Aromatic-L-amino-acid decarboxylase (Micromonospora polyrhachis), 475 residues
Amino acid sequence: MDAEEFRRQGHAVVDWIADYWSGLRDRPVTAQEPPGAIAARLPAAPPEQGENFEQILADLDTVVTPGLTHWQHPGFFGYFPANTSGPSVLGDLVSAGLGVQGMLWATGPACTEVETVMLDWLAQLLDLPARFRSTGPGGGVIQDSASSATLVATLAALHRAGGGDWRAQGVTRRYRVYTSTQGHSSIEKAARIAGLGDEGVRAVEVDELLALDPVALRTAITADQAAGVVPALVVATIGTTSTTAIDPLPAISQICREYGIWLHVDAAYAGAAAVCPELRHTHTGLEYADSYCFDPHKWLLTGFDCDAFWVADRAELVETLSVLPEYLRNAATESGAVLDYRDWQVPLGRRFRALKLWFVLRSYGVEGLRAHIRSGVELAAWFADQVRADERFELVAPHPFSLVCFRLRAGDESSAALLARLNATGRIYLTHTRVAGRYTLRLAVGSPLTRKEDVFDAWRLVSELADVADQADSD
Ligand code: PLP
């Protein structure tokens, strides 16, 4: 494909995406295809000769879109949102076109420096503690996901807990990671990857709001120490996956300081809320964390993948992860004047993800981003009010952000039946969790296309179908 043909087909692709977005409302939110149907539409082998591009594009409509869960659909209320937006897609397109591999400062100076400044911008935007800014000993980096951020934090924490010998010796003692029973599964995965095995993570009890109980944390730490186990890391969460509970950072960070334990704060979804000053109280106590992350790719209009991860002391992180073979040596690295982000992550290679953040931050501006978050929070609050006012339902947890957890008072079977009926309509999509063992529906507002009318419609549907589902527990 030469440059002129690329220009022509590139316009067609952008048109296709714009049409896809504007037609989303008319599609069912989830795929209506049985397993295997999509694969069956693909030939068994790649074509011998190159095909014409129009045909490739046309096949998106026949092969791909009928088999999708449409995460950008205005009726998508499942999991947490996975936002994208025009500026994000275009920033990613430029990144793909540049094809830069920014493993070292020297392999793409702008790739590194734009990223450093974007992470400093984001730190300002969220009003994060000054220690995370690159102008001091800390700094931020883009990871592919919050899971990777947790893994990297786990490795750095082990390095610290081992007095600097983990790097050379590996896991020679029994180390422990602490999180609440509501902590994300990536914490357990990171501990397993790090070699801590079945006993690596201790799930600390929570209070009635499903937030980590600091008294139970202290008890677990002292019991472990007495048994010869080394406490290495506490992962606190702002906005747990199940119900968006907020762990009490001031008390947790006090304990971490007392025992010299690395504190990582996982705000994968809810971190975006801190762009709004009125929601920053959810981050109180962050000033003593060793690391913090959130996913602009969830609720901040930036396409997957983009996790923003900060450390208070970048030297500790680099010391943990740096491996420098001869073929990567260069004068800039040796001068000590540059950041080499390969030392801040697991893979060596990295693409220019900061471009999409740059495009998003500049296109929306601080006020545009705040408007997006506020709309989600307000619509969720409206939905929660309807639930509260309807005696067939109960709210299961507070809704500090844009997730509402609710269920039918009639019981688990009725609630599960309601979810199945709602999703079968194809008009909206919700997911579920269990809270204290009981089946709970989750409605997460946050798709950029979701408007007031969509949340009103969602409530109308929930309300109408509840009566039918209500029978399930009594049948
Ligand atoms: N942490 C929390 C609190 C989450 O809710 C999630 C995903 O929903 C993750 C981590 C994992 O995010 P990622 O897909 O970026 O690894």
User: Anything to note?
Assistant: The pocket of pyridoxal-5'-phosphate is lined by residues 80, 145-147, 184, 186, 237, 240-241, 266, 268-269, 295, 307 (CB under 6 Å). Residues 1-48+66-83+368-475 form a domain with the Aspartate Aminotransferase, domain 1 fold (CATH 3.90.1150.170). The chain has a mean pLDDT of 96.
